[in-house]
Amino acid sequence: MNWSVIAPLLVFLVIIFFIGIWSSRKGAQVSDDNFLKDYFLGGRELGGFVLAMTMVATYGSASSFLGGPGTAYTMGFGWALLAMSQVVTGYFVLMVLGKKFAIMARRYDALTLVDYLKARYNSAPVVILSAGAIIIFLFSAMAAQWIGGARLVESLTGLSYNTALFIFAVSVLVYVTIGGFRAVAVTDAVQGAVMVVGTLVLLVGVLIAGGGVQAIISDLITENPNLVTPFGADGNLTKAYVSSFWILVGVGVVGLPQIAVRSMSYKNSRSMHRALIIGTVVTGIIMLNMHLIGIFARPILPGIDVGDKVIPLISMEVLPAWLAGIVLAAPMAAIMSTVDSLLILVSSTIVKDVYLNYIKPNATIKAIKRTSFGVTAALGVIVYLLALNPPDLLIFLNLFAFGGLEAAFIWPIVMGLYWKRANKYGAIASMIAGIVSYVAIYQWTAAQGDPFGMLHPVVIPVVLSFVAFVIFSLAMKQEAYDYNLIKEGEIS
Amino acid sequence: MNENENTDWRFKVANREALIGCGLALINFIWWFGFAYGMGSKPVEEYSYIFGLPDWFFYSCVVGFLLITALVIFVVTFFFKDVPFDEEEELR
């Protein structure tokens, strides 16, 4: 075992752990009436910095730190170009959902995305469909991240996969269960800061090891000139494919429940304004750095065949061991911060949207508290057990999680906010059309065997779900929705 | 329609800002796409290099990122309005 790498990672975990405890102390001062709002939404009082960081950290998962740079290593600059489409998420989500979402969420007293949809569309099928989609897709996504986290710990420490998974699970579970959303958001902020600093340090290390940008680029051109073009190592990365990532990881992110819920958690419009700027800067820096590191790693450390290993290997190659430990806390942070957000979201969906809506509407505060802690902990344990030996179904569902959720939720959220003729028929049709067509097109595309030549499978379902939304909303005529009619507290 | 008369003033602010968001995304996309494929489609021998990076990437992704950051700061500072979120605040 390489203790000089492990020690900084352990220190990082301990710090995160204490932040969780500190946040739960703060939560203990909250009056019982506000328990749910505090546990699942941090009392709607996130400031600009924490808001920006929690959005970036939730969104920047294992793929931005391991998978993405690993692919950039094989594909060259074309993949970095693709990754830069994510900068748009830094401002677009908060600007588009923006103040109207914040105001409406407060009027509806909505704590979850499903609360919002329930109040806007006033329809049981919408609630069931959306809660179901969140629980199924995000649960699988969470499990997949969990596996990624354990693999990272495994590759760094040399511990067995099972032990690594156990360490990872315990550290996440402790702070999420006791601290709730605030602990998640605050630890996300710390993790986000670790990510920014970590990528900067690593980029500098890689540049020094490679002898500067010019030397690295000329090495790349000598090896394969395609690496410095936008078209990928084999020249098969098409404009259509790369551009469609503007929907998958760019503007479509508006439809991701874990991101949308953060758009109702901030304190005031000033926090939002600050978050817009910080979020854009931080997303840009992380994405640019990580993917450049992936590309620049190629001449320094040729012949890595597993993409996910590029970042761990290059860190240990170009940095002193202790510093590599600190830098590698960044992907660890990214995975943990995604997992914790998903865990609290799935838990809130079960407690708030299923338990309180349908099972026990007038549960006492004490029962709600117990259920919230219990469900969060139980979910964590279930994910842990599944991740020990991941079933095929889980891996299968995870494939669809990101695009499937976007196709399902983007229009019910956005149109619900800005189109007064949007109604429940449109929302139901849109969700079904989005999910079904996404799964079908995804399968079809995979069968064609030329993934880089076509549009990403997310594009058409997003269009189809829009069309379905408009047609069904207009066909099943309902009165125009009056956004002013609902005053705060009328629906809860 | 008389709905417009009693529309919450905050919603007008919100709608405008959402449109600004869409506009920025569009500018961002055009800049990114234009430089990447406009300059990047040349043969590699004709590329020039800025700070060591291929010119298309430098303009599309590095300058593009700086530009969009500057635009975000600009619109937030000059066009975004502070708005109260709670109904009680509004009455004050």
Report on this structure.
The complex is a heterodimer of chains A (492) and B (92). Chain A has 492 residues and is mostly helical. Chain A contains 19 helices and no strands. The relative contact order of chain A is 0.18. Chain B has a domain at 29-83. Chain B has helices at 9-40, 55-78, 87-91; strands spanning 49-50, 53-54. In chain B, a hairpin with a 2-residue loop joins strand 1 and strand 2. In chain B, helix 1 packs antiparallel against helix 2 (55-78). The model of chain B is unreliable at 1-5 (pLDDT under 50). Chains A and B meet through helix 5, helix 6, helix 10, helix 11 and helix 13 of A and helix 1, strand 2 and helix 2 of B.
Give a quick rundown of the structure.
The complex is a heterodimer of chains A (492) and B (92). With 492 residues, chain A is an all-alpha fold.
Helical coverage of chain A, percent range = over 70%
Low-pLDDT runs of chain A: none
Number of helices of chain A: 19
Question: Termini separation of chain B (Å)?
Answer: 29 Å
In CATH, the topology of chain A is named: Sodium/glucose cotransporter
User: Could you report the average pLDDT of chain A, rounded to the nearest whole number?
Assistant: 85
* Global Rg of chain A: 22 Å
* SS summary, helix count of chain B: 3
Instruction: Estimate what percentage of residues of chain A fall within beta strands.
Output: under 5%
Quick one: overall form of chain A? globular
- Could you tell me the radius of gyration of chain B in angstroms? 20 Å
Helix and strand sequence of chain A: HHHHHHHHHHHHHHHHHHH
Distance between the termini of chain A: 54 Å
The total beta strand count of chain B reads 2
Largest interface comes to:
A-B, 55 and 51 residues
Global shape of chain B: elongated
Question: Could you say how many structural domains of chain A there are in total?
Answer: 1
Helix and strand content put the structural class of chain A at: mainly alpha
